[in-house]
Design goal:
Blueprint: E1 2-3, E2 6-7, H1 19-31, H2 34-49, H3 58-76, H4 79-91
Antiparallel strand pairs: 1-2
Helix pairs in contact: 1-2, 2-3
């Protein structure tokens, strides 16, 4: 749908929700880097959540910064997330 001169998908099909975990799993198997693969999977998910706007590279950067702000910084500021991370590291 065109809104304000830009195309944006409003109703995202449910099968597209399988793309971010598939990307993360595939990259993990290919490169053996779990953390980077999970970050790229989150980035793909944020890009899909923003409406799959591909007409400008600007939207790729917006989804990148959304991942940093929403899913990393805000998660690390949460007491419960830090508790789970510390507990997981104590198990190792």
């Amino acid at each position: 749908m065109k809104r304000g001169g830009q195309y944006r998908i409003r109703n995202i099909p449910l099968l597209i929700s399988l793309i971010p975990p598939s990307v993360a799993i595939l990259l993990t198997l290919l490169f053996k880097e779990v953390v980077v693969s999970l970050f790229v999977g989150m980035w793909v998910g944020a890009f899909i959540n923003e409406g799959l706007r591909i007409e400008s590279p600007f939207y790729f950067f917006i989804s990148f910064f959304d991942v940093l702000q929403t899913y990393i910084i805000d998660a690390l500021l949460s007491r419960w997330h830090i508790t789970v991370i510390v507990f997981s590291h104590l198990l190792i």
